[in-house]
Amino acid sequence: MATCSLTIEIDDQQKAYVGGETVSGTVVVRCDKDTQCQGLEVSTNWATHGRGNIDQGVGEQTTVFSGSWMVGQEYRYPFQLRSAEWPPTYFGSFLNVSHTVRARAKIAWAVDPKVEKEFTVVATQAPDDAQPKRAATGSFGSVLGWIILAAVLAIFSIFLLWIVPIILVIAAIVWFFKSYLPKQLTGDVVADVQPNRVLPDEPLNCQLAFTPKRNLSINGITCTLRCIEKCSSGSGSNRKTHTHELFSQVATLATAQILPAQKKQTFAPVLQIPETAPPSMKLSDNELLWTLDMRIDIPRWPDWTKTFKLAVVPPKEPLGERSTAATGNSSDDDTWLHEVLNQLAQSSDRERLEVILQAIREDQFTITLETQGTLEHPPQLTIGERGQWLSGYYEPHDLLVALFLPANAPPPVAGPKWRGSFKILDFDHARELLVLKAQ
Amino acid sequence: MPVLLSLMHPSHLISPYQAWNLRRNPFGELTRAERADLAVLDGLPAWLAQLKKPRTAIQFLGPCGHGKTTHLLALQRALGNATYVYYPESGCRPTVPRARPLLVDEAQRMGRYNLLRMLWGPGPLVIATHRDLGSSLRLAGFETVNVDMGAPLPTEALLEILNRRVTASSLNDAEPTLKIDFTLAEALLRKYGSNVRAIEGFLYEYLQATLSGRASWPPAV
After folding, report:
1. Taking CB atoms and an 8 Å cutoff, what residues of chain A touch B15?
2. Are A8 and A47 in contact (CB under 8 A)?
3. What residues contact B84, with CB distance under 8 A and at least 6 apart?
4. Could you tell me the pTM of the whole model?
5. Which of A91, A95, A99 to probe the B interface (max B CBs under 10 A)?
6. Nearest residue, CB atoms, B19 vs list A276, A342, A356
7. pLDDT of B104-125, one tens digit each?
8. Between A344 and B184, residue with greater pLDDT
């Protein structure tokens, strides 16, 4: 059946390539019979995968060879191709973006053998359309736009006169409940967020000010920073939108109380975009959205709400050059711990193990362990302080744990479970034992 | 230093699928070409023989999510020179092409004019529809084969559909660690009937939950 097998070797597989950077490697071809190749095409590509329809694109494509291949020979074709600049690699829940090098040999009267290999791309700049649109402020262009829109609507409304009253009634109901009623109690509300194009780890300065017309009872005032994956699958009546909340941080600006009439209420909370925040992305059927919602929760009355779309743009500094602090916040992240433990389990080589331990020596993790009393044979490690060794078990990774509890640390809660923060000191491959120190 | 570098990546840059010898979640959306590649069509040889006759039609009839479009795409691939046309729910309806064989998706939305145009034209035709157009086809003189897509799906067929997806999503030359077994397939059919789209949706979310440590595989359906 198969006459040729293709393999791709990327020179630096572990590297995180900056969008647009050149990826180099070799396509290796072996054939089990003499073959005439009409073209060996190699390309860099990106594609989404997950719950939404597939969005995809090509970075660069080239033909590295055409001609004859002899049975039993190995042929190696080096390539250098620019990766796509946008979107960057992303693995989420409903949305994923993968970058690959693809090779395909065009062979007449046979199925074209093809292969692809994944590599990681990080972005250092977002496309310009990542900037959220601000409300128009009356420029000539916008006025002209409204005139054209009104003219088009007027022409169409001649044919669709019956639908106009329905639209007007729906719009009036929405306006009445969403805007008119809340403002009867809150008065005019001034709300703003700066900047709306923001980097990871940067603060968001929010502003909310209003003067209640009369004594206003509230359940609370909140600001919610959210990151949502929004993917659409199918088309027409089969089209379905799937959303998944990736991140949510609620800042409570005021708790339940009665705000006095005619007294100006001003709030200026500062929210922080997480250090490891993925950038906003807008593709045809897949979107990664960052929003900030402000809400004045009024009991038995429509709430006042406003949503700001934010553009979280990637940091200019390539990820590989950032300090280990870049992942500092992820130490309490289950996925990060999962990855670290996988890396440790795969590192039977002591030198590799040391590299990993060195890289995570400042990281703290929070997990729940099943403790089994004092450890009889503690690891041969110099801790440099007094304390006791406990034996434990970490169920998600099926690992035995040696936990060092310093004398000044709070004693473990009575019962079989121990939850706390710790650092990873070592990993004993012979005993499959994870060595931790409580913090 | 490569290991150190990979450890410095935030989790959204690290594929959770690699640990399972996968390059993606096998139960996510596919491109049209992939859907055609992975389709499981037991009746394909008989249908291809049927479509050699000039005034013949095959109707795939059933509700959403039961594989009508996938069958059409696979037949288009097998026929090689067939024309595929999709009728959207709203907006402009495309005019029925003259080319044959003709594959019409969502034929219940064609409208009277396009339906008559199709029926007055020659065959062979392949249609996917939610509404039975068999009597109209027969009245117009088409020898019609009706395929009931809402009929119960055999467990073996579901196993084949799901495991083909898993194999197609595996990393190059790697054996996928994920397998759908007979018991799971039976349980899924009991819960979701022949709605393959609903089954894939459930498996997608369950696998994601497993990858993030919130569940363990296989799912208890």
Report:
1. 91, 98, 118
2. no
3. B72, B73, B76, B103, B105
4. 0.75
5. A91
6. A342
7. 999 999 999 999 999 998 989 9
8. B184
